[in-house]
Specification:
- The chain has three helices and no strands.
- The chain is 78% helix and 0% strand.
- The protein is mainly alpha-helical.
- It starts with a helix and ends in a 5-residue tail after the last helix.
Length: 99
């Protein structure tokens, strides 16, 4: 859903805005990072729940077994999260970013 991807991008930008700009640049003096984190997790939960419900329908209809659906879900999560995680760690090491 492209609209939700746009909202998630805005949530990430709110967090970055709050982290990397001084407080005098915050809009209306509001800590937007907290709202961005909440919005990001709500949208992620919504999208992941949709994926799980679709997989459940496939299992109910007999198109796939439940073990395959669970395995496919976790493989997709792993392939989506861990490569980016290791890229960020490598960039942090290469740029000598402090902890």
């Amino acid at each position: 859903m492209k609209q939700l991807d746009g909202l998630r991008a805005m949530a990430v930008l709110a967090v970055l805005w709050t982290h990397y700009l001084p407080e005098e640049y915050w809009l209306f003096g509001i800590y937007w990072g907290g709202y961005g984190v909440r919005l990001f997790f709500v949208l992620s939960g919504f999208l992941i729940t949709g994926i799980l419900l679709k997989s459940r329908q496939y299992v109910i209809q007999g198109k796939q077994c439940s073990l395959f659906a669970i395995r496919q879900f976790y493989i997709r999560r792993f392939l989506r999260i861990f490569p980016l995680y290791y890229v960020i760690l490598a960039l942090a090491v290469l740029t000598a970013m402090p902890q």
